[in-house]
Automatic annotation (TrEMBL):
Organism: Nocardioides panaciterrulae
Pfam families on file: Bac_transf, CoA_binding_3
Domain annotation Bacterial sugar transferase: ranges: 292-479
KW Transcription regulation (keyword) present: no
Full protein name: Exopolysaccharide biosynthesis polyprenyl glycosylphosphotransferase
InterPro entries referenced in this protein's UniProt entry, alphabetically: Bact_transf, EPS_sugar_tfrase
Family: Belongs to the bacterial sugar transferase family.
Length: 485
């Protein structure tokens, strides 16, 4: 047990996460600046634009009402829990609490002014809250992006112990490592008493038994304890463990054996004190209905009209470069395994397909999507087209025809589909897309298993809001040329 004792000592002397405790103060300062700025702008606009009829004493009423509104607004966000540490960094709870607090403040102040007959200028009140809510949400959004960036660089990390059986520990750890923006640094594991190993199969060091969680939390500098599958034999044990940890400065997280399911499909309903997790069926069938198809038709037609001059310019450039064909047609597999001709601007030499076997041999290719940096088959104009994904614009015609969708899994080649296992076959339950989670998550930088995982997540958790979010993120991914070659 000397090795475990040494590990506990090193964890106890780890650098404390003081910066995490500054997040609420940072958010409070940001909200204060935003609200004060919007209030000042609304007051200035009230005087300069004179939108509503003038009050008798605008300056006097704003001098009293302005600071009061600022204080009540911030107090409402505090009461709503908008500055709790567990709302920062992920999920929609932070935005919901800020929005609810803002609407409540506007309602209370409006009613109070009406009941007391306080002469608060409408030209100040309406713009303040109309502009204040989106400004606060935008400020929190940029704060979240800054937090994600810092976490990816190793800052604002929370040290995590994962308690459970070895397979569950490694599964949770792989998810936390895959998503560094969450800010969870896996420090070690706690295993059942009968498990005497010193580390898990993935190399996570074991710090002791699960029943020692409270004493280990007291002696070490741990921020979070994840209780995964196999950690507790009964709900009564879990309740007693939480009692033991209530006096420690540690967050308790119960991680069920459920991954890659969106929050929209999960509902937690307590029944008799037992929190039951209800999981809705996968939404793959919803992605094939008329609403998404109508969106694809309208969107592709509009984009083809918008990009018509660009399409013509690219066509002329390719034709004048080497005199070869402008487009390249390749057989791909679409919805329910149906094959179709996928259109692209030609970015390679005319005999690219004949050179492919040689490149496979040189690169040691075995299966999956084949892409390589500095591909010798790519032409000079082709490099620019690939860098900004302009070579894929002709696929808008495929979308209009119904072969593809604007958003969906990457359209696979027939030989790739031939190697699919039963899980990967689920990718074919929706139309392939011009863009998708694979596009906004790294494109060619992704490993084959990771690309499959993202596609399956999209198929099982489709929603129109997710499609709109992916389309918005595609622009930044294309401009940044991340993973494009």
């Amino acid at each position: 047990m000397t090795l475990i004792s040494d590990r506990r000592e090193r964890l106890a002397t780890a650098a404390p996460t003081r910066h995490l405790r500054m997040l609420p103060a940072t958010a409070l300062t940001l909200d204060l600046v935003v609200i004060a700025g919007i209030g000042g702008l609304a007051a200035l606009g009230r005087e300069q634009l004179d939108i509503f009829a003038r009050s008798a004493n605008v300056v006097g009423t704003l001098g009293m009402a302005g600071p009061a509104i600022l204080f009540c607004w911030l107090l409402a966000i505090v009461v709503a829990g908008g500055y709790r540490r567990n709302v920062f960094g992920a999920g929609t709870e932070e935005f919901k609490r800020v929005s609810n607090a803002t609407l409540a403040t506007a309602g209370v102040i409006g009613i109070a002014c009406y009941l007391t007959k306080f002469d608060l200028a409408r030209g100040f009140f309406v713009p303040t809250f109309a502009l204040g809510l989106p400004s606060l949400i935008l400020g929190r959004y940029f704060l979240r992006k800054a937090i994600h960036g810092l976490r990816r660089r190793g800052a604002l990390q929370q040290r995590v112990l994962i308690a459970g059986s070895e397979p569950h520990i490694d599964e949770i750890a792989s998810v936390l490592r895959r998503e560094p923006w969450l800010g969870y640094q896996v420090a070690g594991a706690l295993t059942p008493e009968h498990d005497l190993r010193e580390e898990t199969a993935s190399g996570i060091p074991v710090y002791g038994n699960i029943d020692e969680a409270a004493s280990i939390a007291a002696l070490t500098d741990v921020d979070v304890i994840f209780f995964a599958g196999g950690s507790m034999g009964s709900s009564n044990q879990m309740r007693k463990m939480i009692w033991q940890l209530e006096h420690e400065d540690v967050q308790v997280v119960v991680a069920p054996s459920v991954t890659d399911i969106s929050s929209d499909r999960i509902k937690v309903r307590p029944v008799g004190g037992l929190p039951l997790m209800h999981i809705d069926p996968p939404t793959a069938t919803d992605a094939s209905r008329w609403g998404k198809r109508l969106f694809d038709i309208v969107g592709s037609a509009a984009l083809l009209s918008l990009f018509a001059p660009l399409l013509l310019a690219i066509s002329l450039r390719i034709r004048t470069h080497d005199g070869g064909p402008v487009t390249f047609k390749q057989t791909r597999v679409g919805l329910d395994g149906r094959k179709f001709e996928c259109l692209k601007f030609r970015t390679m030499v005319v005999d690219a397909e004949q050179l492919l076997a040689k490149l496979h041999e040189e690169q040691g290719y075995e299966s999956g999507l084949f892409k390589m940096k500095d591909d010798p088959r790519v032409t000079t104009p082709g490099r620019l087209l690939r860098r900004f994904s302009l070579d894929e614009l002709p696929q808008l015609i495929n979308v209009l025809r119904g072969d593809m969708s604007l958003v969906g899994p990457r359209p696979p080649l027939p030989h790739e589909v031939a190697t699919y296992d039963r899980d990967a076959q689920r990718r074919l339950r929706v139309r392939p897309g011009m863009t998708g989670l694979w596009q906004v998550s790294g494109r060619s930088d992704l490993s084959w298993p990771e690309a499959i995982r993202l596609d399956l997540y999209y198929v099982d958790n489709w929603s129109m809001m997710q499609d709109l979010s992916i389309l918005a993120k595609t622009f930044s991914a294309v401009v940044g040329s991340r993973g494009a070659y």
